[in-house]
Structure formats: structure tokens, C-alpha cells
Protein: 2Fe-2S ferredoxin-type domain-containing protein
Organism: Stentor coeruleus
Amino acid sequence: MLKRLIRAFADVTSHTPKGIPKVIDKIVWVNVIDYNGTKHVIAGYEGESLLRAIEKHKIDIPASCRGGDFIIPETEEPVDPLRYGPTCSECQVVVSEPWVNYLKPLGQWEKDRITKTVTGYFEPGSRLACCFVLHKWMNGMEISIPYNLEQKMEQDDIPFERGSNRIF
């Protein structure tokens, strides 16, 4: 009789809710070094893309496509083969050496975009921030933004000649 009571009580307690998840359990802290060399410590949520976390903290990162396909983002699993994927390679970041070894290999679209960049900049630790999903084990990861594409374009501008572009 006592065994049945204990067994019944054990079953009831095993199905009780474990508690409300805490926000601190879902936050991932990442060290970001921008193209000026300034270090920022940012917080992102687990499962969020690195691009969203960087933009949320108002750090300048070039990204004209803002993550590419918004309907099915690159960060979502499984990846649909009929989707657009990232459409630019401007949000490129470089993951520091000890952390690169633990990352998954580059995805099909991400690898295609990084190897065919406008700037020609590629390192073994290069990733696209829009395709980079934050996980809890990434706490303290160091990531750098290698260049500012907008500054590069300003230097390459052709001077505007007054009157040469008029249509009348």
C-alpha cells in the first residue's frame, strides 16, 4: 500500500511544471569589435541572428539586404532549397580563432556569397551575420566587423560635374 502511494505521488510530481523560463537563461553575450576597433559587448537572444543583435545595439554594419529572404530566413532549419537566401555579402563578420573551430560548416548560400564578395575579403573565420544564429554556448565569443562598405564607396565616388547630368 505504501509503495503504491509513493509511486503515485512520484508520478504526480514528475508532471508538475518546472517553472517559468528566465530571460537570463536565453541571453547570449557577444563581444563585437567594429571597423574602428571599438569593442562593444552586446546581448542577443538565443536563436536570434547576429545581424539583428548588432542592429538592435545600433552598431554600424553594412547590410543592404537586411538578411535576404524575410519569409524563410537563413537561420531557420531545415533550409528550403527553393529560397533566395542572403542576397548580398555586406554583413560579413570574422569570428576569432578559438571559436571558429566549434562552428558548423558554412551553408550553401552563405559560402557562395562570402567567396564572391564585392570587396574580395575572405578569411577562414568569415561568416555572414544574417546567417549566424546565436546559441547559449557562444557566451563571450569575439566577433569583428572587418570593414565599412559605405566608407569604401565614399572613397571610390566619381566627382559630380555640375550641369552634365541635366536632361533639358
User: Anything to note?
Assistant: The beta strands are 27-33, 39-45, 92-95, 126-128, 141-144. Confidence is low (pLDDT under 50) at residues 152-168. The longest strand covers residues 27-33.
